[in-house]
Amino acid sequence: MIDSPQKGRQHHARTMVAAGFRSYGPAEVLGPLDREQPEIRPDTVLVRVAASGVNPADWLLRSGRLRFVARSRLPFVPGADVAGVVEEVGRAVTRFRPGDAIYAMLPSVAGGGYAEYAAVAEGAVALAPPNLSLAEAAAVPLAALTALQALRDKAGLRAGNHVLINGASGGVGTFAVQIAKVMGARVTAASSGRNAGLVRGLGADEVIDYTRQDVTAGDIGYDVVLDAVNVLPVRRASRALRKGGAFVTVNPLIGMLSPGWLARFRGGRRVESVFVQPGGADLETIGAWISSGKVRPVVDRTYPLSEAAEAHRYSESKRARGKLVLVVDERFAAAESGRGV
Ligand SMILES: NC(=O)c1ccc[n+]([C@@H]2O[C@H](COP(=O)([O-])OP(=O)(O)OC[C@H]3O[C@@H](n4cnc5c(N)ncnc54)[C@H](OP(=O)(O)O)[C@@H]3O)[C@@H](O)[C@H]2O)c1
């Protein structure tokens, strides 16, 4: 258990430091904001945030490009990933208590993670893996949940399947390679040449350099193609599948535009898209793999919360290797997990 410096204090109507934006725009609009600490509800856990992971959705929201699908109330605090210490629990919460080191994904377009405190539904929370620092734990939730839900729920990946993971060096891709291996699949990973060593080190059986070769060429006939960076056209990805195989993309729109019945005309090849959902049970599954050393987060860079704009610029370059993390509280972020350690 980790003692919070403010344990026992009255949090209501207190202000906290956050990073956010008052108007949509480039990375420069992101800056410090004074916000009221979130209200705790009966089924929520108030978390003192040690660190928050950065995801492309954060800068898509900031840019305003998602404003027609996800209307953010301004000023807005981005951030879907948090790791930290439970400060207080709502009266209906049974699984957590103050001092627990936890990690969680907040609803993806709701934001709130780039802040000293976040309120999270109990069902979205899991104890942080004890062998990670809280900064490392913050790198896990959204990206790892996306990889798990894409491979297990959308693709229906089975032991012995052969899967192509495109974008294997990114946040989602680095988890997808490892999770596919845990699930017993053979993994062909596509990345640029400079990241070949990284993805091989994560367990990929073969690596294709997408800058030199069309990753969908050849007649391998994958059981599953996961496009973790949303660059493969459906037609090309489907061509790389065996009959009855599944193409899963991180572009949530493609699944809607390509209804399941179309698979009949494509030799049973399915086109699916993943739209990641928070989930404490899935984080427990991932946490067990992390605790046993089968999966690890790859953290490319960490930044103090005050440099959130710099982190967004790097993420927007689409060159990050694994995850970027904002450290909100340096002392907590370096600490290892609490209960269960
Ligand atoms: N639908 C959902 O629920 C959901 C959830 C999470 C993420 N997403 C989406 O998934 C995408 C990836 O997210 P992320 O967090 O993994 O992003 P990320 O970490 O920023 O991805 C960066 C990585 O992408 C690789 N990359 C860039 N262009 C590539 C290309 N043409 N082919 C192969 N790899 C390429 C880069 O490797 P190289 O430098 O080697 O090229 C880099 O390592 C984003 O579009 C995000 O919005 C969707």
Automatic annotation (TrEMBL):
Xref: SMART domains: PKS_ER
What start-end ranges are recorded for coiled-coil regions in this protein?
none
Q: Which SUPFAM superfamilies match?
A: GroES-like (SSF50129), NAD(P)-binding Rossmann-fold domains (SSF51735)
A Pfam family reported for this protein in Swiss-Prot or TrEMBL: ADH_N
UniProt GO molecular function: oxidoreductase activity
- Where do the Enoyl reductase (ER) domain residues begin and end? 25-326
Q: Which superkingdom does the taxonomy of this entry point to?
A: Bacteria
Annotated protein name in UniProt: Enoyl reductase (ER) domain-containing protein
Gene source species = uncultured Rubrobacteraceae bacterium
